[in-house]
Amino acid sequence: MSLHLWLGFLAATLVVALSPGPGAVLSMSVGLRHGYRHALAAILGLQTALLLQLSLVALGLGALLAASENAFLAVKLAGAAYLVWLGVQKWRSPVGEEGASPMDEALKSGFYRQGILVNLGNPKAIVFIAALVPQFIDPAAPKAIQFLVIGITMFSIDVAVMSGYALLAGRFRNRVRDRRAVVLQNRMFGAIFVGAGCLLAGASRH
To answer: How does the record say this protein sits in the membrane (predicted)?
Structure first.
């Protein structure tokens, strides 16, 4: 991959990463409630799914998902259902008098898995990758090395952007420790997750 192609891909990746989506919502939600250390687990889960999706594209399977209406629909509905479930769990999360939730410790162990499932449940992501990445592949150069460079670039940019979202949200963490603020935060992010799930359920392949 030439420097010119790589810079073009870098710019495209940055624009996509900065666009708000379920991954950004998850990063901000965890960063605000639990701090950056736990948000990083969710962010690494998002990247695990992202690299898996890129691997499928490299193997030519991304185009199959884009072409198969049934496969796209199945992944889309599963992803939408998971986002709605996350939203309902967030909305209903019990809060103690001091703002602490009995579910907090259990939730902390599952942020990495949540990150994976949030990204894997979005079929438009792999369709987008399948449409974007080939434009920056030089057919005259070894593809394996190019996909490696692309993977490292996507991973680095997305980690940086999601970390920015989480750290920004974390700056307000001390202001949402009382019970009323925690309840409001839970319901706000719960509603956003449910809304994201509904939007995904209505999304098309194009």
So the answer is: Multi-pass membrane protein
Provide the residue count of the chain. Answer: 206
Distance in angstroms (rounded) separating the CA atoms of residues 11 and 137: 15
DSSP one-letter string for 165-196: HHHHHHTTGGGG-SHHHHHHHHHHHHHHHHHH
Cα(61)–Cα(52) distance, integer angstroms: 11
Strands (E), 109-170: none
- Tokens representing 67 are 């072409």
Q: Tokens 């909305």 correspond to what residue?
A: 91
Instruction: Please write the tens of the pLDDT for every residue from 59-115.
Output: 876 666 666 677 667 776 777 787 787 778 777 776 654 444 544 444 555 889 989
Share of the chain residues as helix, strand and coil, in percent rounded to the nearest 5 = 80, 0, 20
Give Dmax over CA atoms of the chain in angstroms.
64
Residue 90's contacts (CB-CB under 8 Å, 6 or more residues apart) are: 29, 186, 187, 189, 190, 193
Left (φ > 0), alpha (ψ -120 to 50) or beta: where does 204 sit? beta
